[in-house]
Amino acid sequence: MFNRRNFLKLGAASATTVIAPALSLNANAAKDLPIRGNRDFSPVTGKERKMIPSACWQCVTRCSNVGYVEDGKLVKIEPNINSIRTEGTLCAKGQAAINHTYDPDRILYPMRRVGERGEGKWKRITWEEALDEIAARMKKNRDAGTPEKVVYHYGRAKASHSKTVGGFFKAYGTGSIGNHTSICEGGKWSAQELTWGGHYDNWDFDNTKFVLNFGSNFLETHTNHIPVAHRMLWAMAERGVEMVTFDVRNSNTAAKSRDWVPVKPGTDLAVILAMINVVMSEGLYKGDGEEFLKYTRVTEDVDASVAQKVSAIKAHVKGYTPAWAEKISGVPAKQITALAKEFATKKPAVLVSYRGLVAHYNGNEGERAAQLLCAVTGQMDKPGTRMKAVGAGWNFPKIKPAKKTPKLDIFDGFPGQAAYPTHHVSHQVLKMIKDGRNGRPDMYITYCYTPAYANGDVQENIDILKDEKLIPFYVSVDPFYGDSTMYADLILPDTPFTERWTAEDMVSPSQVAEFYIRQPFTKPMGEARDFSDVVFDLGKRLGIDMGKAKSHEDFVRMTCDSTPGVKEAGGFEYMKKVGVWHDKNAKPQQQVYNRPVAESVYKAKGVVLDKASGVYWKPKSDADAKKGYVATKKAYKGYVAQKMPHGVFSGFAPDAVNKSGFLELWSPLLKAKGFGPMPTWMAIPEHQKMASDDLYMTTYKVATHSHSRTMNCKYLAEVYHSNPAWINPATAKAKGIYDGDRIKVKSATGEFVTKAQLTEAIMPGVIAVSHHCGHWAYGRYASDRRAPNAGSDDRGDRDYKLKWWSDNGVHPNWAIANSPDPINGQQRWMDTVVKVTRV
Amino acid sequence: MSNDSGPKLNRRDLLKRIGAGSALVTVAAAVPTVAQGAKKQEVRYAMVIDVRRCSGCQACSIACKTEFEVPIGGVRSWVEHHDAGVYPNVERRMLPRLCNHCSKPPCVDACPENINATYKREEDGIVVVDESKCIGCAKCVEACPYDARFMNPFKGDPKLTNGNGTADKCDFCLHRISKGVAPSCVNTCPGRARIFGDLNDPTSEVAKLVDELDTTVLRRGDKTKPSVFYIGADWIESKKDKKAQQFSRVDTHRNERSTHRFS
Known about the structure:
The structure holds two protein chains of two kinds. Helix content of chain A is 29%, strand content 16%. Chain A is α/β, with parallel strands linked by helices. The radius of gyration of chain A is 27 Å and the shape is globular. Chain B is of the alpha+beta class. Chain B is 21% helix and 19% strand. Chain B has helices at residues 11-18, 59-68, 106-110, 139-143, 158-161, 174-177, 184-188, 205-212, 239-243, and strands at residues 45-50, 77-86, 89-98, 118-120, 127-129, 150-152, 166-168, 194-198, 228-231, 249-251. In chain B, a hairpin with a 2-residue loop joins strand 2 and strand 3 (89-98).
């Protein structure tokens, strides 16, 4: 039988010819196999549309794409068939980005508040006025020696964007730079940094035989969505690869799995620990597992033999039996045993995990347990398993930071809230500003970030943003008038991604890095300007040396023209034509941990052996050497190699904490903070105190929307705009709730009213409410509220009068607390306890 | 290809050959046949939708919406989610939808005799709407058993259509395929669930799939003889499933306004 992949190869081959000048078409072209992509024609005139390769930004996946332009207007976005990440596929969100460009509620010029905060009264100002004001304020802080009171808080800033904008603020002298990762999946990354060092795991679906999935709806939404989702669908269809998905509801991913395994919220950890118990008690660790354990630390003693390690794991998981886990999770012990055996024997298998596992009180331990299950079955960083991810390593021009970059200590939560918040605790930033103990900003600048909407406890976020005593000056950089920009004092009209430059670098599931760029499809509308261009102007005003580049386009050009490989292929000019580049001779990266290190390296001058951890490192001073590797601040930066009983190896090198070069599952760092050094069961405190009629509330995302930034895309809103709460009919019946009833959902934090959707596709005792919906601003399609700047002008949009739905959904975050995982600070999206009543 | 014969493979062969999704493959259904006695078309464009490859992501829906700037309220291509079963034994099935480009299209019959704005192209079997002729009577919209048509208020001559706009629907991206480029929905689909080609060309992928695998069509009983074939969607016809309908929920963004008409 012909196979689909050959067919696609065929398609890709013909596609490459598209890059060359005009493809000759014979009269019988239509009879031939239609080629895929990178060409489009007007359905009205039949004329070929101008194709521009670029990259998406609708979510953090940042897929390569191509845009088509007709008479200067962006008319269509499609996948770039030359991308090895997406293999010529693109999701709904990415294609609907044309709605962002032409959103009738887009902000097209700088605006200064004239009424009360949030009142919606604005006056149009010039860029000169806007930048003069910002620069004056920044100067004042710099002169007063308080640059840290200029706080820059971004939601998504990646690759060259992060270098220019972040570089600007560091060059100015503030270290007060915040991100939003803790409301995404920062906890998963922290757990990985504690175990294998570095973050991001790629799931090698191309080579796997079995997929065990704890709480990831990756066929609908994921940080590397389309690149991994399409591979899984192909693996299922072409190679019969089966997947088993643990989730509280039958997501599309669960539905495409062989088995959907309903699991009580916050108890996946118990199931994984029990699976480790099965692997150990059934001897399924023998062979591959034993080999891998050589590189794994599961004891305090770093010289332990494999046999000693096996005994230590066995002893640790002895009590974590399938029967024990069944009581906690509701998953039948028999099923846990069978799935553990299947995972351990159907090699290679991938262990997938995401927010269903990690956005809980015990999420850090969930991810660490997942790493241990991979280790004991030897299924890590090898083809077909969970692998260390590969992204493009660009040679970015340098922007020199100021000598000192002091920062307000408001990004890592309150003292004692999180032990190792390596991706920070962004959901506590506003609370910390309110508290004031570590200082408050004079100027708070948000970029691609809507703190009011994106975090939990919406009411408190709004109250803080509105309070001029807490935040004297709030600048929002955003293309759209949204749920947070409405509380700003100054709005800078950013460009949507379709009008920007970027050198991009997101992870490639093929384990070969893909270099790719974003370039503008069209010129910025109105007076909109890419913030990463604006910072060059601000730099001039403030006398900041931004390096050799004069604009972000310049920065991207220099990046392309100096990065090995891309440079030889033709640099910037090549990238503008093709959009993507990868090294065709590169071998997929695997097994980074077992490379022997030469004696000349680990016995080089200045390198010492830390006996307690077995780490060869370069301490900065004798005092540090005496203090030891684990206790020395940022000692991991001096990591050289790992001594193991069978040699000295590259190991799983640390990058954020002072872990050893083993896959560290016995963690001295966690032990020092009072946590179990091995992955240990932790019950969710709130779940232990539930009344008999309380329900768990979890959240989820759908394929057609990002968390908070796409409901103004009319085509996406048309498909999905309303998010009734999923509730099992048995649970609903007990509360007298019928399908479509209005229900009140009340937690300790807040409440909201929504509709009930009775469905057998969710476990009893749980309600699930998606994100995306319930905007109180963000334009007419999201909220039926026009942006104040838009006035009565429809800007050519002819569709709003055809909007046939009035239910814009409800935002669950009004009732979700901002509450961190105690180890890593991850926002606990899935731990909320609610009372649900019929209205 | 021999479009007229039934499946040539027994189940065991079939499972070996396709390797995956075995449970979903129809065993007994006959392959629909081309109208007998009619003059054989040179080209018969068709789409095969392998629902085993569909995750219900709606990328195809948006690809279509943007390709044609389809007005809000109108849909040429969409995806339905069918939930069935009782907890915890539930299934969610995806069903991508579009015009079936029927061999015997009821919409064509419904178009007033002297108007003939909608017709089936002799050269390739694509059912199209001639916007310059359409009078906006919406009879074809009513006649389509697949709900594949809608009234597009931005098309047509208002004098001719009485301000109703014209009928609109999928045309297999005629403007693209005539230049050798795959339809927009086919081009973007992450799962490669939509496969397009000439059913009369035995070397085409659609011909091979229809020939070698068991496929089903929507509303087989209506004798419309669709040119859209489904792999792995035998549940559409399953009697057991019809019995289970009482538990099932069909969820599509067309639902809320399936009766919606532009006024």
